[in-house]
Amino acid sequence: ANNPFKRAVVLSESYSEATELADIEWDNLGFGFIPTDYMYIMKCTQGGSFSKGELQRFGNIELSPSAGVLNYGQGLFEGLKAYRKDDTVLLFRPEENALRMRQGAERMCMPSPTVEQFVEAVKETVLANKRWVPPPGKGSLYIRPLLMGSGAVLGLAPAPEYTFLIYVSPVGNYFKEGVAPINLIIEHELHRATPGGTGGVKTIGNYAAVLKAQSAAKAKGYSDVLYLDCVHKKYLEEVSSCNIFVVKGNIISTPSIKGTILPGITRKSIIDVARSQGFQVEERLVEVEELLDADEVFCTGTAVVVSPVGSVTYKGKRVSYGFDGFGAVSQLLYSVLTQLQMGLIDDKMKWTVEL
Ligand code: COI
């Protein structure tokens, strides 16, 4: 009787519950999981297509111990954010997440919701949990869509059943440093991705694979790890949870998307914002040595937003960028991007979706 899967939720109940702000401490939200009211679930069989999903009370889900996702890592996730603006809520480019999930699903042999199904499900989930969208300036509602092989397998094969699930959680800054610069260490033995592998899609295994290097870095006092390419061991790839940008004069460079780099939606947005602000943006191979004489280095990601890098350490040598907070370029890009996301400036690119 306690199985949340079996309890259908009447939609009007979710909307009536969503009017008052949730009773939590809204100041100093970090990036930790806070359970909310509802999650969205939709299922389909291998070879079939997703049809009708529904909101359910948030809770644990039931999976066969033999589920494809548990045994062979057949799973993808997405991340996007909703911001409160007056009485409305703004989503940022949700169709981009939908498209990225579809690309990842193709790589991982999974069926995927259509872009329309994905965006509709995100909207329903956010509205049902509206009371958890932080007040303006306090953070955002992080939306986590999952796609997983939920059916049972034993031999290595695509699972016979798939589950698309969305849950949400209110969040603040990703790094404990807040918007203060982060200190990165460059990893030159372990690698995040390999050519021909899955580095370019948001499969769950890519993230478990960085935990070892990340834990070691944190134990030494670094904020996170910057990975190099595994073939030449000299080109920048990305940080565990975000993309990387290097600023030199008016030129902003970032590693090109070549199969081992996650095509970040914030990355893509920052490239457009930077060009609109008159910067020259280069997507190319970026050598580790370029960090030595960079003016600024910063990271981008949905969770991270734009995060200035204060120092990078490579083979024991530390390069500092000499800012207490943002450098001028990352400050400008951060401020334009977040004002767009929060609906504070004219959205000429039509990136936000109002609920
Ligand atoms: C995001 O930025 O949304 C991500 O998916 C990264 C994750 C490790 C928090």
Question: Can you walk through the features of this model?
Answer:
The chain has helices at 11-17, 68-72, 94-107, 115-128, 204-208, 211-219, 265-276, 328-341; strands at residues 38-45, 54-57, 75-77, 80-85, 88-92, 140-149, 161-171, 182-187, 224-228, 236-239, 243-248, 251-255, 280-284, 296-301, 305-314, 317-320, 352-354. With 355 residues, it is of the alpha+beta class. Helix content is 23%, strand content 28%. β9 and β10 form a beta hairpin. α3 crosses α4 and α7 (265-276) packs across α8 (328-341). The structure holds 2-OXO-4-methylpentanoic acid (COI). 2-OXO-4-methylpentanoic acid (COI) binds at residues 79, 207, 241, 301-304. 2-OXO-4-methylpentanoic acid binds at residues 79, 207, 241, 301-304.
Keywords:
binds 2-OXO-4-methylpentanoic acid, Branched-chain-amino-acid aminotransferase, alpha+beta, 17 strands, disordered N terminus, branched-chain-amino-acid transaminase activity, aminotransferase, transferase, single chain
Helix content: 10-25%
Portion in strands:
25-35%
> Runs with pLDDT <50, length 5+?
1-17
Bound molecules: 2-OXO-4-methylpentanoic acid
Head-to-tail CA distance between termini: 34 Å
Mean pLDDT: 92
Q: What is the count of DSSP helices, taking H or I runs of 4+ residues?
A: 8
Keywords: Amino-acid biosynthesis, Aminotransferase, Branched-chain amino acid biosynthesis, Pyridoxal phosphate, Transferase
Protein name: Branched-chain-amino-acid aminotransferase
Catalytic activity: L-leucine + 2-oxoglutarate = 4-methyl-2-oxopentanoate + L-glutamate; L-valine + 2-oxoglutarate = 3-methyl-2-oxobutanoate + L-glutamate; L-isoleucine + 2-oxoglutarate = (S)-3-methyl-2-oxopentanoate + L-glutamate
Modified residues (N6-(pyridoxal phosphate)lysine): 202
